[in-house]
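Predict structure. Chain length: 430.
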Amino acid sequence: MEQIPRYTSYPTAPNFHSGVDGETYQNLLCKLEEKDILSLYFHIPFCRKLCWFCGCHTKIVNGYKPIENYLELLHQEIAMVAKMSGAKRVKYMHLGGGSPTVIEAPDFLKFMNTVRSNFKVLDEAEIAIELDPRTVNREKVLAYAKSGVNRASIGVQDFDEKVQKAINRHQSYEQVKNVVEHLREAKINEINFDLIYGLPFQNLETIKETIDNTIKLDPNRISLFGYAHVPWMKKHQELIPAKALPGPDLRMEMFDFAHEYLISNGYVSIGLDHFVKPDDSLAIAQKEQSLQRNFQGYTIDRADALLGLGVSSISTLPTAYLQNTSDYRSYAASIKNGSLPVVRGVELSINDIKRRKIIMSVMCGFKTKVCSNEFAPEIKSLLPYIQNGIVSYVDEHLTLNNRGHHQLRKIASKFDSYLSEGKVSFSQAV
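Prediction complete.
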């Protein structure tokens, strides 16, 4: 199976290098202007239990003290970054992990107060949080609502008990249903479900059951991710019975079925792996050709800069990507010393920016404008797709038809000048 990036950035994270550091980040932060709009991402790298399928940077904790210590560091980083940034206005905010739901309600309120005291969070800001239904209760949901959270993404993955056992993720339909009810009672009505296909013991029957249960709970958005089995990068994935993983043909059948089944139940397909209600802001953005893509997936986020805070988080500025250290001790030492914990990244060349625009246009809107002279080799590499009618190229406009949507990552990868170097392994493309 061909391995291709998911293009949540370009260049992609494996191409980051140590030549970009905290000094680079500070210089770029200072260049931001007061009129600029910010997006903030906070990484909470803790979970109560290890899910064997997980590809995130996370740490399992039994007690609460490590979480308290980390939050104190995060408070300090927020103040430090805000002081250096020439921009303060925040229109988008996302808390991910790990799991932000490990934070107790009083500490969550304190954390959000710190954000608001250092940045100007706009009244219309979209504030999203990722939820683990096993560690959410009504008190926490009320704290989210009080803090301005207006979007929640629930990690469901799969409702089948056999699949859950194989990935060490036990959660019942009732648990998920209770969380949804708590959210709606608190007026947090924008709800996303994260589902995964390609997990051990999944088949067409289990996928249908999971989608049926999902539809009963009526989320606004559904993310249907393909499981990335990368045990060479995530050793705990070796605990998953590899023989139970569906093969490439079954993976494709499951996605095709899910795609058609969700559409027949009133959802609209957005890009690579998202399905939304027709009146959702993502569907509207795609129609208006304003849909975006970042490390959190498809979004309407059009901020001038995305600032990542916390261990392993990634910042996106107009001309660079910058990533904080993934090592907790190094992160703590940097914060305590008053220095930014950035250890790697990449500064974008003019060529990178041109290619990023093309790749993101393909990933978000299934079409893009491509100069035939400047990108002649890339157009030539697409001839098989053009001849098969999967792609059209007329008057320098490249367009994917419906059959081409399955080939989204492959077609986008034709404009990736780093991929040919072949130094990095990615997840399979389907």
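Summary: The domain at 350-421 is CATH 1.10.10.920 (Arc Repressor Mutant, subunit A).
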